[in-house]
Input
Amino acid sequence: MQLFFRKYGAGEPVIILHGLFGISDNWITHAKRLAEKFEVFVPDLRNHGQSPHSHVFNYQVLVEDLLEYMQEQQLEKAIIIGHSMGGKVAMNFALVYPYMINKLVVIDISPRAYPVRQIHNDIIQAMESVNFDEVDYRQDVEEKLKSKIPSERLRLFIMKNLYRVNRGRLGWRINLKDLADNMDSITDSLLYDSMFPGQTLFIRGSESDYITEDDEDLILDYFPNAYIETIEGASHWVHADAPDELCKLLTSFLGKECVL
Output
């Protein structure tokens, strides 16, 4: 599958993988910062952003998409950074293709399985409820979402998926139906029973419950050279809540100074 992507800078390659309902655009600020020192690639994963849609959506195909993408870009090895669902893709990839990763960064997700969260169902239902025959402008869509997604920050995050199909019509880029149909696969644990021996950094938000103390032994089972850093005051959306703190952690781990 040929993924849409954005690319910045020059140097050692870094790939950033977004999370569920996200797009490459969510990571532009961080990509441009890292691009002062690295060549940064930010793809849209399948069924997200401007990448193709597919009925098949699980970590096995997402790992193979990443392999194909690296081969297309002629990248023998890269630093891989993944947030949430993108972090699960990165972890699974590291277990299957460890020789293709220089360093691994996983942001606010653990190797375990998660229950399907009500917020995910609420987001899908809210997005599906928008009748694009009845809206003309972005603010009309936001108004429709308000009752189901009261958080303004979350609404604006979701509305990154909005685009103009033509002059007279808006639509969602994301493949909502197939994401909803495969939600159990998205929340699954790691698929592969192996180990990644390379340097690994896990970053969690102190206000998030995606990585708990109970996860730490499991993380070390799969990633024995991992350590975990916590960003105080940050939620699951660490990159939005604490961009400067995240930049400092990333560049320190990667052996560079953060460009603020």
Summary: The longest strand covers residues 101-107.
